[in-house]
Write a sequence for this structure.
């Protein structure tokens, strides 16, 4: 058990480092540096070179990365040369927005997908199932950057139910906060709803053929009870895996909608930093997201034990 | 036994459309089970026993079509709506499935599975349902019932699981118990214990029993009457002792010949009857056993035959039954 946890942790660390190396590598391919951004277009090459030396950007890439990694492992993600802000602090400032959006998107995706899957698996092949399948296929084809503007047009501009853009903090009231978060969350959810629905529908249909479902029906338990008490949980193992994986995808997806809807989250931070060649901040955010992703996946694995008593026993043994 | 039988099945046909064509799984079956009586239903694999049992319960997939009558206490179950059926299921008719490893929900504790029916049908509180569950588990011979209630199915042995299934079937004091091959998935030594338990609770609770098996030996000492099924039809019906003493249908005779003796390992599938089960999609005309029968006479491929009374409580659907000489005269049995 401990060996497997250690192996897991080592593996995760490797993933995180690979991700950050890739991010830095890609960014270094782009022309220009943060010095140009700080000093402006008209700065003399000498001034830019001086600034680069001051920031340590004249050193070879591997040494820059090594220095950064050494400090990062100690918990210090550095300071943005652009804003002078501590990167960890910048992340923590933006995190609530991204976290709320991602979790709201995940909640929306899972609950809507469960509802749709239960409705369509109850009687596969009838008109309701076909309508739901059609809608679900349509969702699958709509990425967030298309769903976002469409949702804004329909429900913000036309209907006026939601703000067109901007973010209301929780301190301004939960209602206002949720109203500003719902459309962006829905925009990133659509594809997830569709893929969750497909997966759960298939698994549910399989489970509903099991003898224990017939046995529960034969006890006279009502259909809804059998569906939710007996069929849903044993059908949801692969959904939990997929939902865990897609939480990472949702965090990525929120980057796009944060920009579309003008929300002050990590997405805006990272896109602004990329434009400014602020490598330190980009690295910090990327590593933070990667670590979150890895941790979430670990939690997903642990959660199997709660869903399936057979796994719990095997893990204890 | 007085009055009407508890269960009267009349002209039951169950057709299931599939990609291979329409499966005529049950094709004209009549059954009677009196109150407190035990009926064995016997036939080879694929003869339609499970489909028949599920059709009686109304548990088949929605696309299966059942026609005929399933009169339970005078009410035709086939015409009942879903909600009315849910009032019968578990409360008045309970079913025990073939494989206890698959008929208990792996992610639900035994306690909930055992008590949910009582709580719904009898409106018991959590504590009294718990008490009831303990009593039932003790009755069916599950040791340490308090701990078993907290277990998940995988923590129990196969025999224990089937005992739990029997306890579960008894929870609401049903009038009819349908047991579809309740011991096929169990070890030989456990089989007998579970079957004897089933017979014991059946007599002590005064419950009627439909005991389905492909093995004549299973129903032999444990049922009052037996129906022999072949390819969706009845071959022979009668008092169990009578059918055993003097089987009339050539299929029953062959089945009896195929029944293993004590020396035989009972769970090795025996297929001593040459040939294969008739196709349920495109059954042979006339007697469905005729292609495999050594004793056919010219009429065997014409439509029919119907059940004909040959004894006090003994009917057979065979044009050339065992105790009739080739000439057609009934010889002394
Ligand atoms: N859901 C279904 N869809 C299509 N065909 C089915 C279905 N269930 C059963 N059948 C077919 O109906 C016929 C009778 O099957 P059934 O399960 O009733 O046999 P059985 O007598 O119970 O056999 P066994 O001893 O193997 O349990 C078989 O040909 C089977 O393939
Ligand atoms: Mg069967």
């Amino acid at each position: 058990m401990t060996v497997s946890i250690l192996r897991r942790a080592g593996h995760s660390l490797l993933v995180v480092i690979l991700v950050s190396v890739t991010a830095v590598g890609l960014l270094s391919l782009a022309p220009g540096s943060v010095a140009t951004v700080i000093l402006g277009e008209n700065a003399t090459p000498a001034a830019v070179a001086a600034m680069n030396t001051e920031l340590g950007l004249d050193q070879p890439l591997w040494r820059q990365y090594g220095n950064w990694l050494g400090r990062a492992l100690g918990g210090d993600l550095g300071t943005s040369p652009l804003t002078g802000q501590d990167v960890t602090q910048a992340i923590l400032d933006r995190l609530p927005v991204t976290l709320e959006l991602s979790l709201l998107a995940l909640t929306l995706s899972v609950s809507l997908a469960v509802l749709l899957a239960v409705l369509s698996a109850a009687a596969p092949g009838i008109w309701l199932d076909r309508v739901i399948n059609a809608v679900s296929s349509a969702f699958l084809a709509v990425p967030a950057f298309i769903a976002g503007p469409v949702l804004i047009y329909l429900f913000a501009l036309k209907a006026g139910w939601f703000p067109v853009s901007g973010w209301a903090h929780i301190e301004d009231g939960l209602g206002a906060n949720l109203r500003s978060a719902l459309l962006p969350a829905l925009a990133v959810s659509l594809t997830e709803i569709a893929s969750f629905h497909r997966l759960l529908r298939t698994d549910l249909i399989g489970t509903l053929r099991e003898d224990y479902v017939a046995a529960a029906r034969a006890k006279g338990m009502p259909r809804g009870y059998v569906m939710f008490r007996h069929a849903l949980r044993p059908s949801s193992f692969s959904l939990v895996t997929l939902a865990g994986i897609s939480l990472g995808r949702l965090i990525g997806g929120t980057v796009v909608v944060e920009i579309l809807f003008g929300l002050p989250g990590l997405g805006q931070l990272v896109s602004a930093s990329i434009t400014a060649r602020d490598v330190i901040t980009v690295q910090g955010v990327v590593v933070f997201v990667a670590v979150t992703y890895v941790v979430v996946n670990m939690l997903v694995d642990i959660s199997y034990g709660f869903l399936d008593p057979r796994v719990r026993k095997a893990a204890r043994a | 036994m007085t009055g009407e039988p508890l269960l009267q099945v009349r002209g039951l046909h169950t057709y299931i459309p599939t990609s291979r064509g329409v499966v005529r799984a049950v094709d004209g079956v009549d059954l009677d089970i009196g109150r407190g009586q035990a009926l064995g239903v016997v036939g080879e694999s694929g003869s339609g026993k499970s489909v028949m049992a599920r059709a009686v319960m109304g548990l088949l997939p929605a696309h299966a079509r059942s026609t005929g009558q399933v009169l339970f206490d005078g009410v035709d179950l086939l015409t009942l709506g879903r909600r009315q059926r849910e009032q019968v299921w578990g409360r008045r008719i309970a079913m025990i499935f073939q494989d206890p490893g698959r008929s208990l929900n792996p992610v639900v504790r035994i306690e909930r599975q055992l008590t949910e029916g009582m709580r719904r049908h009898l409106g018991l509180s959590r504590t009294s349902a718990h008490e009831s569950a303990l009593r039932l588990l003790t009755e069916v011979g599950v040791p340490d019932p308090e701990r078993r209630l907290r277990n998940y199915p995988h923590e129990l042995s196969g025999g224990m699981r089937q005992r739990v299934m029997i306890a579960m079937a008894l929870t609401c004091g049903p009038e009819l118990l349908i047991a579809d091959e309740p011991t096929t998935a169990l070890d030989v030594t456990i089989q007998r214990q579970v079957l004897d338990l089933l017979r014991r609770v059946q007599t002590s609770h005064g419950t009627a029993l439909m005991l389905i098996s492909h093995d004549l030996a299973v129903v032999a000492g444990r049922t009052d009457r037996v129906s022999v099924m072949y390819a969706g039809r009845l071959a022979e019906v009668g008092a169990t002792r009578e059918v055993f003493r003097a089987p009339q249908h050539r299929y029953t005779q062959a089945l009896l010949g195929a029944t293993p003796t004590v020396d035989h390992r009972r769970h090795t599938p025996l297929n001593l009857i040459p040939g294969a089960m008739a196709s349920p999609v495109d059954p042979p005309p006339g007697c469905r056993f005729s292609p495999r029968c050594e004793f056919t006479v010219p009429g065997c491929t014409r439509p029919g035959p119907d059940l004909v009374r040959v004894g006090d409580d003994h009917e057979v659907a065979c044009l050339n039954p065992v105790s009739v000489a080739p000439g057609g005269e009934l010889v002394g049995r």
Summary: Residues 2-73 of chain A form one domain.
